[in-house]
Structures are given as C-alpha cells and as structure tokens.
Description:
Elements lengths: L3 E2 L9 H6 L10 H18 L5 E5 L2 H10 L7 E6 L2 H12 L3 E6 L8 H10 L3 E7 L1 E2 L4 E2 L2 H8 L5 E5 L18 E5 L10 E6 L1 H8 L10 H8 L12 H17 L1 H21 L15 E5 L6 H12 L1 E2 L1 E2 L8 E5 L6 H17 L8 H11 L1
Pyridoxal-5'-phosphate binds next to helix 3.
Amino acid sequence: xxxxxxxxxxxxxxxxxxxxxxxxxxxxxxxxxxxxxxxxxxxxxxxxxxxxxxxxxxxxxxxxxxxxxxxxxxxxxxxxxxxxxxxxxxxxxxxxxxxxxxxxxxxxxxxxxxxxxxxxxxxxxxxxxxxxxxxxxxxxxxxxxxxxxxxxxxxxxxxxxxxxxxxxxxxxxxxxxxxxxxxxxxxxxxxxxxxxxxxxxxxxxxxxxxxxxxxxxxxxxxxxxxxxxxxxxxxxxxxxxxxxxxxxxxxxxxxxxxxxxxxxxxxxxxxxxxxxxxxxxxxxxxxxxxxxxxxxxxxxxxxxxxxxxxxxxxxxxxxxxxxxxxxxxxxxxxxxxxxxxxxxxxxxxxxxxxxxxxxxxxxxxxxxxxxxxxxxxxxx
Length: 380
Ligand code: PLP
C-alpha cells in the first residue's frame, strides 16, 4: 500500500503532475523549453502576486534562501534575522555563512514574531541592510505576521526578505502589497509539485542591490539568471531540471484551475478541521492557536507514548506518514501537513488512523469523535 504522505512537504503529487514529467527531454536552450520556462515563471509571479519576474531555480527551498542572501550581502552587513523556529535559524546560519553580521531577534518556538520588538530593533539599528522572516514556520506550525512586518519596513531602508516555502499556494502571500523585496518558495509544499525546485522574485530595489553586489555564490548568481531569462528564447544559466520544470508547470496550472483564493480557502478549512479533530481527541495544539498555520498543525505528543511508538504505529499499521518534531521539539511534538492537494479525503483517513492508534496505545478514545469534526467542517 502506498503511504499517505501527511508530512509538511514534500506533499502528495497527482498523477497528472507526475505524468507531465514523462515528456521527452528537449533542448534547454531551445524554443520549446523557453516557452515552458517563461510560462512557469509567469504563473509563479501571479501566485506570488507580484508584477515582477520570478526565477525558477534548480535546487530545493534552501537554494532560494541562499540566493536571497548571497546576492545582496557584503562582508559585515547587518541582517536582522527573525527566528522562531528551524527555518528562521537557517536564514541566520546562511547570513553568517556568507559573511553577514546576523542580528538575531529570537522568539520562543510556538509563538509568532512580535511586531513591537521588531520595530524597536529596527529603531536601534538604522543600518540594517535586510530583514529575513519565515512566513510559515513549518517546524512549529506558526504563521508570522508578514503583512504587518511589511508595514513597519515601509519606513525603513532595509530590504524585506520573506520565506514563503510552506505557505505560497496555501495561505495569503501578496508580495507587492506587503512591500516584500525578495520572496522565495519551494515546489514540494502547497504547490504540490515534486521536490527539487524553488522560485524567487525580486523588487526593483532588491535588484539595485543585487546589481551593485558581487554575488557570493557562483551557481546561484541571480544576475546570471536575469541575463539568461532575458534571452530569446529565455534560458537558465546552467542546465535546469527539465523534467521537474515540466511538473511544476503542470502543478501551477492546477493551482490556476482551482483558483488561488479557493485553494487558500481549502487549506484554511483543512487547518481548522485538523485542529478541531485533534482537540476533540484530547490532544493539545503546540503553537498559540491564534497564530497557527494554514498548512501544518503541530501537536503535543500524547503523554505516555514515544514518538517512535506513536508515529511508527500510524505508519506501519495504518499507512499514514506523519512528521515528528525538529531539534529540541523531537519527541515532544508531531506534525500533520495539510498542504498541497489535501482535502477531507486525506484528513479523515489521517484522523481515523490517529484515533485507532491512540485506542491501541490504551487511551480512552471515543472512535469517530475526531473524524466527525473533519466532516463537520467540510460540510459547513
Ligand atoms: N523554509 C521553510 C519554511 C521550509 O519548510 C523548508 C523545508 O521544509 C525550507 C525553507 C527548506 O526547503 P528545502 O528543504 O526544500 O530546502
């Protein structure tokens, strides 16, 4: 039996998208591929809600995180890294890797970034060159207030860099409206394409900085991406993952057909239903609920079980793959990804597997109590 993949990325990929990868490999510097690349980038810009170009990078989300920083950083530049989880931490590590002076602004994992603290830090450090924030902290199931942070940054020179890897296509991300200068995403989360690609879009202000900065990376030098994409037909500087781009192109068409607003609504419904279902089973949500994510729910592990026992049973006996916690949350929480193509179909199976596993592990569970919440929300 195929595993039902309910982790927060990679997510299940439809047959339609998988089949797109079977197309013949064509010349990556020819007309046919140029058209596909251009179309994929154009749809990506629509999903980012930006008038600016988007670039498809061969490399997972972390490649785009690197590209965002390695193209704007000079040795010693101050970067304000907002950190409330694993991926916020990653931006901090990338900053120092490329010689930046990271100013970390840390919040407890499970809480959202605090606007007032961000304001204060920016006032204390006028020479901050860029601010990084992760919209949807996949490690904790927290959504950060990217719109509000954008408003603060209206009055500041700093570039605004947003990681929308696990939110684009599943939650509201409006790059131009929020004043985001650099936004990145990955193929394998809410967009429901296979893993291995990422995308990045830059504002005019960000391009001004990129053009006047020596890139700290060769492969991800964005100036080269811009140059190649302006050729006729458009290209990438190096051989791209042609088959994955076929798949991403198809996946983005699916997003367009569903309609972005409908897709976000479906994700929101899945999030509400998941939270109601696990709470009905007596489980506790890990993050503050008012800032909880549209695309992933982090839940305290039921007391008296181990991660290995609990998730292992759900995987082996019921065929559902859930995610564990990361870093210090390992063995403390588990996570349900409800992103990409997830509907009530996958959620009823997932919650029923959790119910059966809890019962088998000796918990006093009324079977169906969680599943009924999924049905209630999706029928409302
Ligand atoms: N940012 C966020 C919010 C993520 O969830 C992830 C992956 O889980 C990444 C960045 C890194 O992406 P990748 O694993 O595709 O390199």
